Amino acid sequence: MRERISLRIRGRVQGVWYRASAREEARKLGLTGFVQNCQDGSVELIAEGTRPKLERLIAWCHQGPPAAQVNLVDTEWLPPTGEFDGFEIRR
């Protein structure tokens, strides 16, 4: 059963390869969706897949790549839409 998460990651998460690393992790897990920088300095991530794989991605997002310093990950569970073909970086 597929589910959807909407994450807002806060901290030192821009300019540290967070988006590229998140895309790589999501693709390894077989998830679809996107990740993008936000104007307030946070990163937004939307992903769809099975709950166990989404939970693994959430756990990864709390750490991020080595240069990141994650302070907070806001998580919202939503119904899936099936709108994504793969996982991409936006903006």
State the main characteristics.
Alpha-Beta Plaits; 2 helices; alpha+beta
CA-based shape: globular
Count of individual helical segments: 2
Based on DSSP secondary structure assignment, what is the total number of beta strands?
5
Helix content: 25-40%
CATH architecture descriptor name of the domain at 1-9 and 25-78 = 2-Layer Sandwich
Residue-averaged pLDDT? 98
Strand order of the largest sheet: 4-1-3-2-5
Task: Please state the structural category.
Answer: alpha+beta
Taking all Cα atoms into account, the compactness measure Rg is 12 Å
Instruction: List the secondary-structure elements in sequence, H or E.
Output: EHEEHEE
CATH fold-level label of the domain at 1-9 and 25-78? Alpha-Beta Plaits
| Main beta sheet | 5 strands, mixed
- Strand residue content: 35-45%
In whole angstroms, the N-to-C terminal distance is 30 Å
Low-confidence stretches: none
Indicate the CATH class of the domain at 1-9 and 25-78: Alpha Beta
Describe the secondary-structure layout.
Elements: E1 2-12, H1 18-28, E2 32-37, E3 43-50, H2 51-63, E4 69-78, E5 87-90
Parallel strand pairs: 2-5
Antiparallel strand pairs: 1-3, 1-4, 2-3
